[in-house]
Amino acid sequence: MTDPDRYRRQQTSFSDERRAQTFVADLGGECAPLASASLKAAAAAAGIARVASDYHGSGGRGRHWLLGNHDALVETVNADVEYDYLDPGFLADDLPAAIDGRHNPWLVVHANDPAAACAALEQLGGLPVPVLLALAAPGGAVVERRPSPASALERLGRAARHGLVAPASAELAIAAAGAAISEIMLAGTSVAEDPAEPRTVLFYSLHRRRRIDLPREATWDDLAGELGEAPPRASFAGRRINQVGAGALGNWTSIGAALDGGVTMRVIDGDPQVEPHNLNRQVLLVHGVGRPKAPVLARELRALDPSGAYEACARYVERPDDLAPLDGVDALIMAPDNNAARLVGADAAWRAGAPYAAGGTGVAGGQVVVQQPGRACFRCITGLGDEPAPATEDAGNSPCALAADESIVASNMVVAGLLVSELREALAGRRAQNLRFFGDGGRGNRLARMTSDPECPHRADAGVREATCSRSPVRRGSPPVRRGSPPVRRGSPPVRRGSPPVRRGSPDPADEPAGWHGQETVPQQGGTVPQQEATVPQQEGTVPQQEATVPQQEATVPQQEATVPQQGG
Ligand SMILES: [Zn+2]
Questions:
Q1: Which of 5, 167, 261, 327 counts the most CB atoms within 10 A of its CB?
Q2: CATH superfamily of domain region 17-228
Q3: How far, in Å, from the CA of 380 to the mean position of ligand 1?
Q4: Ligand 1 center from residue 326 Cα (angstroms)
Q5: What pTM did the predictor assign?
């Protein structure tokens, strides 16, 4: 019996009642093995009552459990969760029995083999269960929700013209699986959201400048054709990466990088022990309860990537020396739970001239910000500064403190997947995108794009200048008000609930509407998205409380006033 404390930090988003009533069948995973394994690992971590599948992974000596047999995988991650074997030829008989009257049943159909997906859906036409069509492919990922197998079959097109679509690299598989699990956990829980409506849960294409421009009229074959094509991508193999954070986000970012094989990584995290309530999202730490996080994660990564080299640094990042040397490091991944560490990392990566990818998540969403040489710095992208929070504010008085640290596995997977993917772009010398994910609201694609290249006076100085723009004259009128941001003190462990802002700079050229850009593609601009950032506590921290923390623009920076996009509603 799993420690019930495991589920403590997901109660408002995925209650025990909903958890017990949730069922997921994963179909067609044989042609998307990592997406299928990631989905099952996430479902088990979150405590979804029963998981069933027609694909069960592959066992064998020496395989890490994440890459092995799926029955054993689910058992490893969470012994509470039942795993059922489905016979692909008898789904119509097997599935109702497996669902066993649960009120929140879902089918996830990996569509990399469209003929097999159609064959499964044809058997299930009449079953009143929503379907998530998922395609994680070399060129991106799409997840669509359909109200029934018949509707999903119609979407696929009964005679899918496309042949097999290759599986995605690890991080895109993780992002697609995370988006599917997010929907399973959260669909219908927010107002004005009808789970019976078809919708795009996630569309992310490396072939599009803004990544998220969903082609409105595209057939599934169109999407499969686009995403099936792989653009040239940078590999993490042979690279040296420093990663700050061994929590939920850091678990999934490091999996995404490590599965390239041959990675050299330092994992830096000061948390003294893995807690039972971490295990609803920190899947690689399941064997480490009671032990320090960084060494536990490094050990699992060594098992996952035996050709790589993984070193643990068990300390918090409060000043540059804590980061471990960045000389010769190819990139810095930032997945901590506080902004002070993010700023330290941004400055250090700037000095070193290395790409820097920072992520953060909250209850149902999160964001990715990439700072890369020659482009805007982290502070100019986020508006984050060094101002201490008002002295009167303290964690004990914050209403957010009561539910602090709530987080779910799904948002961390999506954000981690996007972070690793965008970092690959930076490593290839292309412009990375800064993206946000909203798991519980909006219409259309649940991804939105942040301004990626605002004005930054020192953009050319990466590798030369001491720090990012903290001391530049980009000061704005009234001081920022931080809600739910307790003060960060030197010498104490970094506090959670940091809330970095999004600065709304002027749009860069990629913000111009593209040919296929439609209303549906940027749902968050409509103002209907719940402002989760402003109303819920942050766990990993970087999801910004926009209104609260965006510094006010001064009259001397007038061009930005008129062009502030209303992201976040
Ligand atoms: Zn700057």
A1: 167
A2: NAD(P)-binding Rossmann-like Domain (3.40.50.720)
A3: 4
A4: 20
A5: 0.83
